[in-house]
Amino acid sequence: MISNLPEKRRAAPQLCSALALVLSLAVAGCAGTAAPRAPRYDGPGALPPLAYYQMLSRLGSAELNRERSVLAALPKTPNTQLRQAMLYGHPRAPQELGKALGLLDGILKSSDPAAVSLHPLARLLADNYLERQQEESQIERQGQQLKESQKKAGELQEKIDGLADIERTLPQRARSVRPASPGRGK
After folding, report:
1. Which one-letter DSSP state was computed for residue 11?
2. Separation CA 144–CA 142 (nearest Å)
């Protein structure tokens, strides 16, 4: 046993090198298989909010509602306000275009550098939401006009039915016989 001791001492550095190599490969392998990091939506500029908007399109209505609560708990930065406006105006979520426009207006009026970098995107969203809001109010006006027209048509039909009832209750007139005109016919 004592005679093997010098050989073991010579092999120890090689064993340590091999062990270090195996550990570094294992760590590198784990780093390659780690779950991809979720994108950050609160970064500077317009790209993070655009990525956020893309992410919203993949969510269901329950997840969109959950996202509202998450955003409500975050600090009120221009980026967070823009994301809230996106969520308020999202077609698959309960739409609150008035709130969305209020948030966007706050961003557009702000001179904060973070808000200024979001101005083009905020303007685009605000224009889109204003157009949608105008279309909705036009549809509401047309619906109101339709209801009024239906009401007037109903009232006119009642008047016609009333006149028809009056006509039925009138006594029949005796038909008068017309006298033959003189000078004709012989």
Report:
1. H
2. 5
Closest CA to 92 of 138, 50, 55, 143: 55
Tell me the C-alpha distance between 93 and 114, whole Å.
27
Q: Of 25-29, 48-52, 100-104, 163-167, where does mean pLDDT reach its minimum?
A: 25-29
User: Residue 103 domain-assigned?
Assistant: yes
pTM exceeds 0.85 for this model: no
DSSP string across 36-90: PPPPPSSSSSSHHHHHHHHHHTT--HHHHHHHHHHHHHS---HHHHHHHHHHHT-
Q: What SS3 class is residue 1?
A: coil
Cα dihedral 25, 26, 27, 32 sign: positive
**Contacts by residues 136-145 (CB-CB < 8 Å, ≥ 24 positions apart):** 136/97
Q: 182 lies in a domain?
A: no
Residue 185 sits at φ, ψ, to 5 deg, of: 75, -15
Domain that holds residue 87: 47-137
With respect to residue 131, please indicate whether it lies within any of the assigned structural domains: yes
